Structure formats: C-alpha cells, structure tokens
Amino acid sequence: DPMDPVRKRHMFDVLVKMGFKEIEVGFPSASQPDFDFIRQLIDDDVIPDDVTIQVLVQCRQELLERTYECIAGAPRAIVHFYNSTNPLQREVVFGLDKAGIVDIATGAARLARKLEDTVPEVDVRYEYSPESFTLTEPDFAVEICERVMDVVEPTADHPLILNLPATVECYSANVYGDVIEWFGRTIRDRDAIVLSLHPHNDRGTATAAAEFGIMAGADRVEGTLFGNGERTGNLDLVNVAMNLFAQGVDPELDISDIDALRRTAEYCNRLPVHPRHPYAGDLVYTSFSGSHQDAIKKGFEALPGDYQRWGVPYLPIDPKHVGRSYEAVIRVNSQSGKGGVAYVMKSEHGFDLPRRMQIEFSKCIQHITEDSGTEITPAAMWQTFQDEYLPEVRRFELLGHELHTRDRQSTVTAQIVVDGEHRTVVGKGGGPIDAFVHGLREAFGTALDVVDYAEHAIGKGSDATAAAYVETIIDAGPTRWGIGLDDDITTASLKAVLTALERQLR
User: Fold this and answer.
1) What does the pLDDT read at residue 504?
2) CATH for 396-504?
C-alpha cells in the first residue's frame, strides 16, 4: 500500500535526522495524499534550512502546473521531470521518433522555466531523467540531455541534475560503470551538471552498479532505505553507505541505530526487511557454522578492548557501530562446534571453559540440537550446563574441609555427603587437589586421577566467584570434567573434583 501522510512524515523526519540533504517527497500531480503531505511540510515550515525537497513529475502541462502549485512557498525545491527515451517505448507507448521524444522533454523544460514566475519565492532547481537510460542508445541519451540543457541553461553555480536511471537493470554493473564514464566524458558543459545515478535491482546488482558508477565519475546517487521500490526495488542507500563505512570512509549519514531505521522502513512501507539483508537483517552478524564460530571467538579474544583497527573473522564491521550487541553474533545449532558453545558460555554466562571441556560439553549440546532440529538458546544452553555439571541434587556434596600444609605436603580432611550419608575423607598429597583425590581413592576404592585443571574468577572485586575446572580419568576410561563454584578457590577446586567423580560413576 502507498504511504499515507503520517507515514510519509515519519519517513521524512528520519531521513532528515540521518543527514540526507535532498529528499524526494512525492509525486504531487499524481496523488492528492502526496500533494497534501508536501503542502503540510511547507505550511508547517518543517523543512530544515540545509535540506531541499524534490518532487517528481511527468512531462505534461497539467501535471507541471499542479506541481508548481504544490511547491509554492517552499524555500527550495528540485523539480524532477522525466520521459521515457528507449526504442521500445518510443515505438509501442508513444508512437514517436527520436525528434518527438526530444520535443516532449524540451517542451516540459520550457514550461517549467515559464512556471518559475508563479513561485518567485522558491529557489527552483531542475532534474531531468531520460527514463530507461540503460535501454536507450547512449548517443541519443546525450543528445536529449543536451537539448534540455539548452532550455534550462545550467551554470556551475546553478547546475542541472542529469539523472541516469537503470529503470530496468539490463546489463552488468561494470558495463553500467563504463556507460556512466562515457556519458560524463561526452556531455558538454560537465561543470554545469550534476551527474546522478538511479539504479534498480532487477539483476540483483544495484549496489555494485552504483559503486561502479561512483568510481566512473558520478556526483550523486538516488535510492531508498533498504531498497524498497518497484519490482525488485531501488538501490539501498544504507547498503552503499555501510560499504563505504566498512572501508573506513565516512558516509556522513547517521546509521548508528540501524534497527531503528529498519523499524521505520518496515512501518512506513508495510514490508519486512529480510533477515539476511546486508547490514540490517536479524541474521547478518550471526554465525551458525562451527569453524566460523571458533574463528570469531578467537578474534574477540585477540581484539584489544580499545582497538584502533577492527579485526574479527567473519564480521566485516563491529556490530556495535550500528547499534547491535554481540549477543546474536553466535547462535548454536547442529552445525555448530565447540567454539560457538564456548563463546556463548563465556559471553552470556561468564564461564571460560577449558578447550577439552568445550569439546565435551559441545557434544551434549549437539545431541540436543540434532534431536530438535533447531538452534539452542543461551538460556537453554545454561540449563543444560547446570543439569550436567551443577545439578541441584547431587550424589556427592562437600560440606566443609580443613587444609594443613607442612613441608610442601598437604593434608585435607573433608566432610562430604554421599547418597545422603555423611562421610569423612582424609588424604595427603602435593597440594589440596592431590590430597583430596588420594583421600577419595582410599574411601571409595577408585583409581581416580586428575588430568587437567583450570580456574578463573567470575565477576570482579568482592562479588567475584571462583570457578574451578577439573578433568579426571579412572583407569583407562574416558575423561570427565567437573566444575566447582565458591568464594574460595580451594573449596571450588574440591567441589569440581566431586562433580567429576560423580560424572565418572554415572
């Protein structure tokens, strides 16, 4: 559905806030709502001093007269008139030869100049489009544009915008760039025109065509937010701007809250933005692949907090620069590996799992995602982690312990509960963990050994909690990890040993 005046006003305000200086606000001669909206902008004096409104009109007398009636009282306005110039439309739509098509364009230009007298208070500029430029013979496009220039009489201080639409995208982006370059070199009085691009996306290459056109010498680009438009849409100006930004070039547009811009476009156009739309979609900063997730995790770990140069694999920009968080960067499904699981556990829950524990826990997660056929949320992953390593009901529970160290020999006396029964475990060894493991061997007749150990703090200062990770093995069986949490690191370590033993004996 077309935008109503309320939606148009919302879109206008957002475009102004973004930093656009020329905004096409409607087709007032073809639509009463457009006419009323433009009058509202003018009558309410809401057009900023550095913004020029642009109105679209066909090359017909009554439509031009209605357009000038609409813009009366505006401080500035671009009158954008156009007519189709390609051979097919010359023949089947208008039934005219080239001379007849030129007469349409020049007649409109003469009438527009005459109508300036009806709006002396308006600083009027002109834009002319040979519609379907990319299907028009290039030499004829130059000819008709120069004939329009003869009427408009542009100067370097008051140039004419010559807009070259790929109304229907019909050839590759590099050829578009070549034609734009040829046009810019061929047209006379180049300093008196603004060479403008108007790509459509029929071949899916509007952004590439615009970038080739800019490199070929274009001064200006027309487009929409997120590519809304006829058929497959117009050029997405956010995409072009963000491509510049990603290469370190300031597009001079405010895209710092891309989700708010997307919501505006979806509200005004009543069409959704695709989840994989460049820079703006829900999934564009998200990786499901295990190898990608592992690389992203390592990239974040290597990135200084006050980085001067962004460098994280698979993320061309820092999502925070467009108002996104890192929360959705990695999402875990059956294709994910240990890297994705480890990233979520660290970023969402603060647990920096040792590498081999990442492998062990990721297998638990993979079973869940393969069975469900869907991704697993951070909350569901945390619940699985608790069930596996931090269950509320345990077979083995540490009530307390005493530690004595003499001559590098530690003695641990621990009070534990096993299946509801109190037990005292006493052991000696080269440290608290070694002593506790020796005590458990004697108490339960098990050949428990510790293979690896890691620890870190969760949180900072007085609120920090110690997390201890212990990898264990019994005889030549599989290794099993345990985790312990406590304010005291030694207590956390002993809890981790008990968790690992319980998992070994399941």
Assistant:
1) 94
2) 3.30.160.270
